[in-house]
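Reviewers of the previous submission asked for a worked example of the structure-prediction workflow described in the proposal, so we include one complete record here. The input consisted solely of the amino acid sequence. No template or homolog information was supplied to the procedure at any stage.
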Amino acid sequence: MLKIAASDNEYYNTSGELKFFIVDDSMAPMIEKGSILIVDKSIQEPGRILVLVHDGKIIARKVRRLADGGFEIIPDNPEYPSYRAEIIHPLGAVIATARIAF
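From that input alone, the workflow returned the following structure tokens.
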């Protein structure tokens, strides 16, 4: 699951990028909990890591288009199950990640 990186007015900028914090380990080890995601709203096709709205939550997952037109939603962490979706609601593709060390 993800959390918007700043207030609603600050997370979107004029370059078309969104910023989110990863608040779980569903995409570990590829993307670690606590990472910041930079998401390009103009890229929304499957075959990438997309940020999606699913069941009222914002999530980051690998998305694969299936031959029958559906989608496979795939976490990187094997402790989380993959699942099928008929429709996806992408916000954009992850184009960069960052970790802040304290």
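Residues 35 and 99 are 5 Å apart (CA to CA). We consider this example representative of the routine output the project will generate in years two and three.
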